[in-house]
Amino acid sequence: MKKTCHILWIIIIGLNLLCANTARSQTISTVKIDLEVKSKTLKEVFQIIEQKSGLHFIYNEDLVSVYSNISISGTGRTVSSVLNDILSKTNLWYIEQNNKIIIEKKNPVPVDPPETKIINGKILEAGTDKPVKNARIYFDGTLNGTSSDSTGSFTLYPQGNRQVPVIVNAVGYDIETINDFPAGKRAIIYLNVRQYDLEAVTISASDGMSRKEKLRIFRKEFLGTSGNARSCEIINEDDIRLSYNSTTKTIKAYSDKPIIVRNKKLGYTLNFLPKDLTFSPDRIMVQGYQFFEE
Questions:
Q1: 235 and 165 both lie in a single domain
Q2: Could you list the residue range(s) of the whole structural domain that residue 211 is in?
Q3: Across the chain, which distance is largest between two alpha carbons, in Å?
Q4: pLDDT digits (tens, 9 = 90+) for 138-173
Q5: Of the chain's two ends, which shows fewer C-beta atoms within 10 Å, N or C?
């Protein structure tokens, strides 16, 4: 049986984006719905709310699938009151962002109010102190991010009242993960020039499998085969390097740049920066960082 390992929160594999048409003026505090739900899974409840409200849900199916036997009813209830009700009995919570409802694990660690968490900083190359321009700085797994300017400077606005790692990446540099910033201080972030391992650099065309076949398998394993996955397109396949080990029947994928996945049906773009993409008959490893765009 194939064993699938997911270390970080990712989209397409293990993450479903379930969307309906959304009116920009709608919020979870103003939209009211009638509900009569008995013994449904949490995923089914989300689907019902989407159908009745026209709001979008984003969630990791692995987190949601463990909750079932949910019953809730009411007339003219706001979506926020419904979510407060059903999620109070789980280890999940929600945040509303750009007319999307993002479901995530509850954060047990108290955090400072958002106004104290505006992050101003500068990205420099380690060892030379040269500014790194066009670096991406973003809260992992969100729509909230920015880029450094020609001096390496950036401003990142708070990600609600919660703690989410900040990811910093630039082409040619190692990824930096920041879990906390000192309040009120300008952050100086140093990026190390990436040192490439031999396997990632020396990918031979004569490894026993054509690039076309490797790419076909990669698309299938990375995007999946669901109806939602069939609406997805990898925009920058030329940036992806692929190797095949005929002894272990393993395909590995590498990319210095984020892999850009566009979901034409849902209107999302995912920038997925890979750490480990390994596909074999008995194991799939997908590790990386992600940033959503509309």
A1: no
A2: 198-293
A3: 65
A4: 888 777 788 899 999 999 887 665 567 888 988 788
A5: N
